[in-house]
Amino acid sequence: MKKIVLLISLVLVWAGQVWAVPVLQVGVPDGDGGYVDYTTSGDDSNTAFTSGNTFSVAGLYANGVVNLGGQYGSGSDWTNFGLPSYFAGKRAVLIATVSEGVSGTLQVKVGNTGSFLDPFYKALVDENDYFVDNHFPLNKEKIYDFFYFDIGDFAQLGTVPNFAAPTDVGSSGEVKILTLNITGFDWVHFDVMALETYSNDTKKVGNPGSHDVTWKYDGTVVSTGDPVPEPGTIILVGVGLVGVAVYRRRQGK
């Protein structure tokens, strides 16, 4: 009898560890092997804040899942869930939310190789129904534009930690490292959604509201290229070069 009770306890503990880790989550590495806490500041609730240019997206394979990302074989595609044709054939989708009508550059690179990706689709302020939880970031009203990026399927490369409690470890999955190229925005909010495919069913899933990331501008442009000089700086440099040329010409006489 004691052996049966012990076995049941172990099964419950194991199940608790697996299901304590969300299927999808977005987080920020803290540099010490863990992840930045999900905190609340003003109107921004239960989000991990960063002003850097990298963050993580994780996908966990629950029991019975054969693929996590996009369409698997002849199964359901994004368009079967009411999304427009722009989503056809896409894999897991990163959702970037920005202030309505603000112009800027936003690109994402998946992993350490390859090039930066532009969004495959941009949605206007009233098109927020595409996210699985109809999520309104930052506890504000519908005042956003949405950028969508194809970040590929999640593989089964090893165990996946809970970004909110790294000691909780789930079953097999993948943690993707994403690099940002951002100019022109004061803040960008990131969520992720994917198609979770079983042998006879497909579900649209997204990260819980407590496992997302908000990037905030801190005065430093997060860009992969060299900074573009301000017009005033260009003028001053030009005037200086002209002065040097005149001086050398006079010295040569």
Characterization of this structure:
With 253 residues, this protein is α+β, with helices and mostly antiparallel strands. The protein has one domain. It has helices spanning 2-19, 231-252, and strands spanning 24-27, 39-41, 44-50, 54-60, 65-69, 92-99, 105-110, 121-123, 144-152, 158-162, 165-183, 187-198, 202-206, 213-216. Strands 2, 3, 5, 6, 8, 9, 12, 13 and 14 form a nine-stranded mixed beta sheet that branches. A hairpin with a 2-residue loop joins strand 2 and strand 3 (44-50). The chain is globular, with a radius of gyration of 23 Å. The model is unreliable at 1-19 and 224-248 (pLDDT under 50).
Q: How many distinct helices?
A: 2
Shape: globular
Mean pLDDT value: 79
Radius of gyration, Cα only, in angstroms?
23 Å
